[in-house]
Design goal:
The complex is a heterodimer of chains A (395) and B (451). Chain A is mainly α and 395 residues long. Chain A has 16 helices and three strands. Chain A folds into two domains: 35 residues, no CATH class; 325 residues. Chain B folds into three domains: 252 residues, no CATH class; 77 residues, Ubiquitin-like (UB roll), CATH 3.10.20; 67 residues, no CATH class. In chain B, helix 3 crosses helix 6. The chains are: A mainly alpha (395), B alpha/beta (451). At the A-B interface, helix 1, strand 1, helix 3 and helix 16 of A face strand 22, helix 11 and helix 12 of B.
Chain lengths: 395, 451
């Protein structure tokens, strides 16, 4: 069957190359062809054998790492509604209700995911065609992350706008995946946050009222409660498991850690960044504990890991290899500062309950500077060595 | 003997390493000298088609320094002068006529003897990888007495019975430098014992352990005597050192060398005794099962040259690798578990297997020339460092080469590397960039700038 499919693809291929009937669809065709078949290209220059991993495989590994958080997020979307909606058809705690939570969340999340992929990939395909490039796989991950970090009630048109903004101004103007300096998913999130603050924060966006539309039922996130000066009502266990209101898939620390495991074992993400973000956040939390000027400052430091998007950011967004620092030493500094700034913003500026997004975007901007300093040290070391040798030779 | 431990690196579990037996190499009668094997050499042709030459007669010399000559490895007749685009001289082919006695020369002066016989061309300098300049006094000479590349031949076997010559060669090399002669062995190498027993050999010995590229001379130089701008370090392959030793002992130059024919496509991988520049076609047809599409490489799979089934052994190589071509489509290749693949990352099932040879043999990872994906911009970072044992930032250096910023390249330490040092980075690269050519082009530009 595969052979027959291959023959078919080979047969229609001439239509899609330069001069063919559908040459304007060349990039699209190539994207789908290489999606089905790893191409038969052989090495020409350089090493004759190559590692089996390619960008598609690497990106699909990240998507796999996102799955636990995504599935839990779907279930939790339904679960949050079931807790407060009067129309919920099943008895709370029953198996039927459990499954209906997942189904409800799936139906709520599906339009978000579809819109994100359609708009984002549409723009990507367009740019690829205009540039005569191949379509880059980066958006497979970005397109899934964006619906995972917004409130479930985000209107689809807002999401579409944010995605378009992020892909065009966050990525394509710099030359596409690999050339951007800001994490595109966070650019989309920031666009939403600053353009439509009423839809992105407050107490009335986190819980979907019904299966359709963007109506919401009031319900505060623990982070929102803290910003208002109240200790969160949810227990540590709830926050660890993730059965709290929040952005669709950011709530469960356990599901996110499962994803972290996939990323670290496969070697796709760098453990240094993840660990450094945790250390930075923890240290800043402890520092505030020492000051202890108000209730927020006295919050045990580990709460910061459980609240809001800290974990999701540390695992999936700070580790974005393109926008993070590129040297290993740089990754430590980059991660530490992200963690520290995230907690700093949370505690000192209640107007921005979620410091993680801003903190990562800020450090995205500084990542090249960090790398520059790290590399400069290496350069200086080499110059010093040469100087020392020259002196020795003179003696 | 002090020990140097290399942590970063990767050994590729290819099948088809040579067994320690000597095959009969019969029916080889054409030999070629390929100026393209020698970096930076501008060839001037010294013979015409049809000319009779003896072993050691110059076929080609370097226009920039006529003392540097590429000589005929056998006595015979020049049957072809092969030229490529823009009349670039690709090869001078000599057909053997009669038995070659070797080239006799005076051995009072090492330098003169090497220049006269053409053995000088085997002496390379770092940086740039060009043939050494006879007027230089290098700050050190480094000889790596082993090769750690995939399917690399075993120098203990290849130099068996020639240990004395190897030591003589080292002695001769030591006289070419005011600095130190470094010789690097792998742990447990028999050759080390033979060499260390020698009296009056002015050399330092090192044991280098770890995965490939531990045997690359570049890795060793970086640990022993890192190269700064203006420095010169010379290197020579062990077999050529033995040739030099033989030349100094007997006064006769015979460019014979052992060559391992290896690779996944080789039926019975083993060693052959050949003359430099030999045509490999009869060996290849001997080794191949019929009907396979195979790439014939002079050198190893990471940085060898594709010479084709009728090609000639390249100047510096001691192995011929037969690698299956990979021009097939892989249905959903990026999605399937991937048991019979090989990846440095653990994104495939095979990545979880222990690196022990028994498990790998059972898994039969498929190595061929398929690129396994399309070229993309650099996205992933921090991976190159795991296989790159230098105090250099590899990605930053590659990018400096791509944008052609020579000053930055110098600062980042380009003089310490050769393309082969980046071979493993290129292998594991997710974005499938051809890194070795990028480094070579940058080095060539720097070299021409310095002229």
């Amino acid at each position: 069957m595969f052979d027959r499919l291959r023959d078919f693809v080979t047969k229609i291929k001439p239509n899609f190359v330069e001069g063919g009937k559908y040459a304007w669809l060349q990039s699209t065709f190539e994207a789908f062809e290489t999606f089905a078949f790893t191409p038969n290209t052989v090495t020409r220059r350089g090493s004759h054998v190559r590692d089996a991993v390619d960008m598609k495989r690497a990106m699909i590994t990240v998507v796999i790492a996102l799955l636990p958080a995504l599935l839990f997020g779907m279930w939790n979307t339904g679960y949050q509604t079931s807790l407060v909606a009067e129309w919920w058809p099943y008895e709370l705690g029953s198996a039927a209700s459990w499954w209906y939570c997942l189904w409800f969340g799936f139906l709520r999340m599906l339009p978000l995911i579809v819109v994100s992929y359609l708009v984002g990939l549409g723009i990507e395909f367009m740019f690829a065609q205009i540039r005569h490039h191949e379509v880059n796989e980066g958006y497979l991950v970005t397109g899934l992350i964006i619906p995972m970090i917004v409130p479930v009630t985000t209107p689809l048109w807002q999401l579409a706008l944010a995605v378009a903004f992020a892909v065009v101004l966050g990525k394509e103007v710099f030359g596409g995946s690999g050339m951007n300096f800001l994490n595109p998913a966070l650019v989309a999130r920031a666009f939403l946050f600053f353009s439509y603050p009423t839809h992105m924060s407050g107490d009335s966006v986190w819980i979907a009222a019904d299966l359709w539309g963007s109506d919401a039922i009031a319900g505060a996130t623990p982070l929102g409660e803290l910003a208002a000066g109240v200790m969160p009502a949810a227990s540590v266990w709830d926050m660890l498991v993730g059965t709290i209101p929040g952005s669709t898939c950011e709530t469960s620390v356990i599901a996110i850690l499962l994803g972290a495991l996939v990323l670290l074992v496969s070697g796709i993400a760098n453990w240094r960044t993840m660990l450094a973000v945790m250390l930075g956040g923890g240290a800043m939390g402890l520092l505030f504990n020492l000051i202890g000027a108000n209730a927020y400052m006295e919050l045990p430091f580990y709460y910061h890991f459980l609240l809001g998007g800290f974990m999701f950011g540390a695992v999936f967004m700070a580790t974005d290899p393109v926008t993070s620092a590129q040297t290993n030493a740089g990754k430590w500094i980059y991660g530490l500062l992200i963690g520290a700034f995230a907690v700093l913003l949370r505690v000192l500026n209640p107007a921005y309950p979620e410091g993680m997004m801003l903190s990562i975007l800020l450090m995205n901007c500084f990542a090249p500077l960090i790398d520059h300093c790290v590399v400069a040290r290496n350069i200086k070391r080499r110059e010093k060595r040469a100087l020392l040798r020259r002196k020795e030779a003179e003696l | 003997m002090n020990t140097i431990r290399i942590k970063q690196g990767l050994d590729l579990p290819l099948t088809g390493s040579a067994v320690c037996s000597l095959g009969e190499a019969s029916g080889i009668d054409t030999y070629a000298v390929k100026p393209g094997d020698y970096v930076g050499l501008v060839p001037r042709l010294l013979v015409e088609e049809g000319a009779l030459v003896k072993c050691g007669d110059a076929l080609v010399c370097d226009k920039q320094d006529e003392r540097i000559r590429l000589t005929s490895p056998v006595a015979g007749r020049v049957t072809a002068v092969i030229r490529g685009e823009k009349r670039k001289l690709l090869a001078v082919v000599v057909k053997r006529e009669g038995e070659s006695e070797g080239c006799v020369c005076s051995t009072t002066d090492v330098r003169m003897a090497m220049l006269q016989t053409g053995l000088w061309a085997m002496l390379r300098q770092r940086p740039f990888g060009t043939i050494a300049n006879p007027d230089d006094r290098p700050k050190a000479i480094v000889v790596s007495a082993f090769d750690s590349a995939p399917l690399a031949p075993d120098y203990d076997y290849m130099l068996q019975g020639r240990e004395e010559d190897f030591c003589n060669g080292l002695r001769a090399l030591a006289s070419l430098t005011d600095g130190v002669l470094h010789v690097c062995f792998r742990p447990g190498q028999q050759l080390a014992a033979a060499v260390q027993g020698q009296n009056g050999l002015r050399a330092e010995y090192h044991c280098v352990e770890g995965p490939h590229p531990a045997g690359n001379v570049g890795t060793q130089i970086a640990r022993l005597c890192p190269i700064d701008k203006g420095d010169r370090v010379w290197t020579m392959n062990p077999q050529d050192v033995a040739l030099l030793g033989c030349l100094m002992r007997t006064g006769v130059y015979r460019p014979e060398r052992m060559v391992a024919v290896v690779g996944p496509s080789a039926k019975h991988p083993q060693y052959y005794r050949l003359v430099a520049g030999a045509c490999v076609s009869s060996l290849v047809s001997d080794q191949l099962a019929d009907g396979n599409s195979v790439r014939v490489l002079s050198g190893n799979v990471l940085c060898g040259t594709n010479i084709g089934a009728g090609g000639y052994l390249s100047g510096y190589d001691s192995m011929v690798t037969l690698l299956p071509e990979g021009d097939y489509y892989d249905f959903m290749g990026w999605l399937l578990p991937g048991v019979h693949k090989h990846s440095f990352s653990r994104t495939f099932l095979c990545g979880f297997a222990p690196r022990s040879s028994r498990v790998q043999r059972w898994l039969k990872p498929r190595f061929d020339t398929n690129r396994h994906g399309d070229v993309r911009p650099f996205v992933f970072t921090g991976n190159f460092e795991k296989v790159f044992p230098f105090d250099i930032y590899p990605l930053q250096l590659i990018k400096a080469c791509l944008v052609g910023d020579m000053e930055l390249q110098e600062k980042l330490g380009i003089y310490e590397v050769e393309p082969e040092d980046f071979a493993l980075c290129e292998y594991i690269d997710v974005s499938k960039t051809d890194i070795q050519p990028i480094i070579r082009e940058a080095l060539e530009k720097l070299r021409k700038e310095a002229l």
